[in-house]
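$ fold --in a.seq
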Amino acid sequence: MTRPEVVQRIRSYVDDNFLYAPGSGAIADDASLLTLGVIDSLGVMELLLFIEQEFGIVATDDEITEDNLGSFAGIADFVVGKSANTLEPAIADRAC
């Protein structure tokens, strides 16, 4: 999945689950969802569950940071980066 696709999917999830009226499009990709009050600590946990179910990405404790989960851009970078790291061992295994 591409970075723009991840951003769009996360925006859709945030619209459906955290905003009273759809409108995450007005939030900049790099804006802090925590500072804006869009999500709180419980929202971060819900978002982690969604990321795991939607993208198959499991965050370790040290990956649960505002850099990785605090903005649409951060989430997309985290998901795409983690997906790439997950695929690399599988590709290497097939080459052997």
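$ fold --in b.seq
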Amino acid sequence: MASKQDLAEQLLRRADTDAAGARAMLPIDEVADVLVCFHAHQLTPYAAGLRYDDDTVHAVKRETASRWATAAVQWARGLVEEAGGGQKSSTEPEAVDGG
């Protein structure tokens, strides 16, 4: 059975992948905002509702959702690293645009 630290790192890797997917889709106009925001909201209680309930929801701009997702992953990475005794997580950090 995986330790709590191992599980946290696994979830962090998944969140980082979702945030990277959202960032990758930003410049593609043909990709619907709801799809970009779905990946930006993954692993939260809002993701499924946003994805499947209403594709006209536009609470925030897609760039903002992506930036928030990246910031959330960085925040979570800090918590995981702190809980792991200060060891760096196995996921690579991404820069967050301060805008």
